[in-house]
Amino acid sequence: MILIMTIVLFCIFGLFHTIYMFIPLYTSRPQKQNDPSKETGVCILIPAYNESLVIKNCLMGIQNVNYTNLEVFFINDGSIDNTLKILDDLLTLKKTFRRKLGRLNHERVNDLYRSQRFPNIFVIDKENGGKADALNTGIEFAEKEIIITLDADSVLEPNALNEMNKAFSNNKVVAAGGLVNIVQGYKNERNAFTPSFKISGLIRFQVVQYMTAFYLHKATQAKLQSMTVIAGAFGAFRKSILLEAKGYRKTVGEDMDITLRIQELIGTKMKGKRIAFVPEAVCYTECPESFKNLFKQRIRWQKAFVDCIITYRKSFYRKMNFTASTYLLFDSLLLGTLSAYSTLLVPVVILITMSHLKLAFLLLTISISLAILQNIATLIVSRRYGHQYEIKDFVSLLFFIPLEVMFYRVTGLLFVSIGTIIYFFDKEGWSRSERIGKQIVFHKEGNVTKNIGG
Amino acid sequence: MKKYVVSNVIFTTFFLMIILPLCYLLYDYIIHYGATPAAAKGPLNVSDVPYNSVNKDFTGVEEYASKVVVLMYHQVIPKKKLKKHHFQDNGELEETIITLENFQSQMDYLKENHYTVLSLKEFELFMTGEKRVPAKSVLLTFDDGFKNVFEFAYPVLKDHGFPAVHFLITGLITKENVHYKPALHQYASIDEVRKSADVFDYGNHTNMFHQKNKNDMSFVTAYDKAEVKEDLVRANEWLGQSITFAAPYGEYNEETLEILQELNTKMAFTVNPGYAEPFGRSLEIPRWQVFPKLSLDDFKYILGE
């Protein structure tokens, strides 16, 4: 009985992973470059709670963006450090006034400031209310059509918004996820910001994982119209859909929550609309550098996931479309969460009973092969989008892959298992990851000008 | 679009080269799981298995037998190790299974009441009328070659000094030794067959024809004579030397008997109750099946008391 279940689970697992390799390989194509579509108005919302370490980096990224029809809102969510002061120093803030939409509720806003140096950058100073609340406040003030949500530790690549804009030129697209890369996986050289693999194992693991998750998994999900999370680090939405969804809900994982709500809308009121994934629109974010912080982050993600599954349990297959529901229930829940326990237990059981050694070995070989092949597919696909490693980095990456598969993935399973259990005891928990504040210097784009305010 | 074709094709080929063989292995494992863990390829080596030709001297016995009881067993499993699948839907034990406890008490009874348990050789000579055997004589037979018989009944028989005949489905005897698992339907390994030759004489229970077709007919009666013969020959070759046969499910017909004659089989057993008498039909020797529900009194009744 257990044996049959294992094999069935394993076959589903194999199927999903094969799909994840071949759909991106055969369908992912960079958007055409010769498409100077009209710039739609974009409003970037950056919730900031005690972000003094990284806020400067984030601002720098925004100043480098090649986009003119742009508004930026830093939302100081009642920080108790000097975030607001740093913003003032950098932007020279002056109080201003703007009408709100009046459609979403949020905590009291103390003041709205406008930068005197860059007139399209605003700072909202409000009472603390959490990330969802901060985003809702930002939506209230935003006047542009497209809303970009950005984490304070995320730095936009100069052309990211232009690529996002191309995706939104398609009327069917109501929301889109950008590609999130790990900033520690890059190095600043004299004239370029290039991928590098000279980093600690823990970060390597996350770099590889992010790449696989975005270039393969998200690309596949977008293709099959089953995106379930638009990463909070870099997401784009039409303002109308956010209002339709009644804004963000205060929860552990507001990014997954809003994505699922949009999926519900697509499945009911707004048939034919879709959520896109735009791998050319890149942002860089920091990843935890210590095991402890990684653990915290992953536990938080898993809690967010479990929370969403429970919240939306009645919507699957009814309000949400077939592929999205299937993906979420089978891949994320069944394989990602439930089978994590069995996967962790299988080696123990096998060692105790010493039966089915051959089968265990066979399944292990298949999963390792699949994982390695998947990593290779990631490299092939990411290369098409210009994510290219130098030869020596490439070699060390190849050597790292088996290690990643055998060691780090098991650790990942551990996080998932523990996170699920912890959810049922403590639904709140840590709200964000540690901040590091690594400098990014863009030199590659020769034509980057400080177009903000110009 | 075209510029990705090369890398895609290379990757796909690479993928198939690695994954397909692995999938095949997995498929192979699943297909073979539960059936037999790879049948023993080589035959039973005759030199390893001395023909159990015990031929005791029965002269001077007060009373000689006019008929002999042949008992038929299939599986012997200790009570503790019985699993759900050993029982029928009505909660009764499968008819082919008796508990080790019952088996032990039956053997004890035979021992205490001075029964003579015959070897195959002695029984053969009794049937041909060349030898007289004591009045209280029995022949013990087992069908199929289940692992549990080797695991549990063999030590009891050896303890009591009782020989027995074991009819093997030779195609199901496995190549490798595995641990006994009550949850599985296990057959003995070739090693176990060899090691237990001091108690068992082995008989032919077909090579792979212990099966039924769609119409619930035993292969032995459903297939052409030539095919049945080929299967029996294969089993005989595997056993090396076999003078005896038992038909699966007790189903046989005239053709089967012809084949047995052609193969020079000395004795063949049925599953019909009755007693073996000298000069009787040696290819249709009746046997008493020992059912799980049989009480010791029923057992005595079968023994003719």
Overview of the molecule:
Chain B: Its main location: secreted. Chain B: Keywords: Membrane, Signal, Transmembrane, Transmembrane helix. Chain B: It comes from Cytobacillus citreus. Chain B: The chain crosses the membrane at residues 6-27. The complex is a heterodimer of chains A (454) and B (305). Chain A is of the alpha/beta class and 454 residues long. Chain A has a single domain (1-27, 36-449), classed as Spore Coat Polysaccharide Biosynthesis Protein SpsA, Chain A, CATH 3.90.550.10. Helix content of chain A is 49%, strand content 16%. Chain A has helices at 2-27, 55-63, 83-91, 131-141, 160-168, 201-223, 239-244, 254-267, 291-311, 322-353, 357-384, 391-425; strands at 42-48, 70-77, 93-95, 109-115, 121-126, 146-150, 155-156, 173-182, 186-189, 192-195, 234-238, 274-285. Chain A has a ten-stranded mixed sheet with strand order 3-4-5-2-1-6-11-8-12-7, sandwiched between helices. Chain B is an alpha/beta fold. Chain B has two domains: 1-33; 38-302, TIM Barrel (Alpha-Beta Barrel), CATH 3.20.20.370. Helices cover 34% and strands 14% of the residues of chain B. Chain B has helices spanning 5-32, 100-112, 120-128, 147-160, 190-195, 219-222, 225-239, 254-262, 296-302, and strands at 68-73, 75-77, 97-99, 116-117, 137-144, 164-168, 200-204, 244-246, 267-269, 275-276, 288-289. In chain B, the strands form three sheets. In chain B, strands 1, 4, 5, 6, 7, 10 and 11 form a seven-stranded mixed sheet that branches. In chain B, α3 links the parallel β4 and β5. Chain B starts with a helix and ends with a helix. At the A-B interface, α1 and α11 of A face α1 of B.
